[in-house]
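Researcher: I've been going back and forth with a colleague about how Enoyl reductase (ER) domain-containing protein might be arranged in three dimensions. Neither of us has a model we trust, so I'd like an independent prediction. The organism is Furculomyces boomerangus, in case that matters for your notes. Sequence below.
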Amino acid sequence: MTTDNTISYEGKTITCKAAVAWEAGKPMSIEDVEVAPPKANEVRIKITHSSICHSDSHVLAGNTPNTKFPIILGHESAGIVESVGEGVTAFSPGDHVIPLFLPDCGKCMFCKSGKTNLCLGLTSTWGRGLMEDGTTRFTCKGQEIYHFMGVSTFSQYSVVSAYSVTKVDHEAPLDRVCLLGCCIPTGVGAVQNTAKVFKGATVAVFGCGALGLSVIQGAKMAEAGEIIALDINPGKFDKAREFGATRVMNPLDYKEKIEDVLKREYNGGVDFSFDTSGGNVGVMNSAFECTTNGWGLSVVISVAKAGDTVSTIPFNMIRGKSWTGCFYGGVKGSDLGEYVKNYMEGKLMIDEYVTRNITLDTINEGFDDLHAGKCIRQIIPMHE
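Model: Here is an independent structure prediction for Enoyl reductase (ER) domain-containing protein. You can compare it with whatever you and your colleague have in mind.
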C-alpha cells in the first residue's frame, strides 16, 4: 500500500517523468515534463499507479480526429494529493484520490437532474485538452502539452480540476482501486444503472476483455440466470468463467451468424446484451439483433471509430427492442466510495483483473500486449 510520504512542492513547478504522445499513430516517448502548480479550483496529484485502457489506445491510434497532440494520455489511476489551488476546500495534501475522466461538478443542469452521470462543468475546455482557464499545466522541451480527458495520468504528477477527483479510503490499496477509474464501474454500472438487469435474466456479453469481465461481474451480482460470454479469443474463456460466465461461445465456431444462434437457442433472443468489443460496429449490430422482442435491451459501451454507424430496421423498435449506451456505466465520482467499500469487504473483484505490473519505460510494449490480448490489466507503479 502506498504511504503518505509525498513531498509538497506547493506553489512550485515540478519536473517529473511522463509518457508523451507527440503525434497520432506513433509510440509515446518518456520525457521530462514540467507540471505547473494548481490554480484556483485545481488539485495537483502525485499519480502513484496508472493502468492502460483501450480508450487510451483508441486515441493514440488517431481514431478521435478532434484530439490535439502532443498530449499526455492515461485516465485509469489513483494517487495522493500533493497540493491544492485557491478555493479548494474539499481536498487536502495527503488525501488518497481517484482522478475522474468524467467530471462531477454537482452544479450543472445534468448533475442536478438526478437522471444522468454526465456533467457540463468542464465542457468548454475538457474536449480541447485544456484546463478551465484555457491553458495547460504541462510543458516539455519548451512546448505546451495537452491534457487528456481532464486527467492525463501517464505522468508522475498531474493537475486536475477539483471537479475531476474523488477521495477514497486511506486503507484501500492504490495499486488496485486505480482500476475503479474506468473499466470496473463502466461495466458493473452498465448492468446496474443502465440496463437494470433483473434476477434470472439471460445476458450476452460481447467481448471478454476487462470491460466485458466487469459486465459479467455485474450480471453475476444482479443474479442473472444465464451469462453468456462471447469472444473470438478462446484464451479469455477461463477468466470469463472465473468472473461468473455460465457459458462461453466463440462466434467463429458457428456457420450461422451468432445472433441467429442466440435467438434460436434462447427462445427468440436474450433479455440483455452488452457490446464491449472495442468499437466493432458489426459486433454492436449482432449484440442488438440477438435480443428478444418485447423487452430486449442492448447496451453499447465500447467506443467506435469516428464516423462509424450502427443500423437496424425500424420494425425492430416497434417490436419492443431497445438500443442504448452509457458513459462510465452511469456512475458518478461520488459513487466510487461504495465501490471501494465493496472491494474491501470482498464483494467486488479487482485483484483478478491484474495480469502484471510494468514500468513506465515499457508502456509502449504494454499497449502491444493489450492489442494482442495477452493481458487484462497492466498496472504501472509510476514512481518505481
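Researcher: What would you highlight for our discussion?
Model: I'd start with this: The mean pLDDT is 95. After that, consider the following. The radius of gyration is 21 Å.
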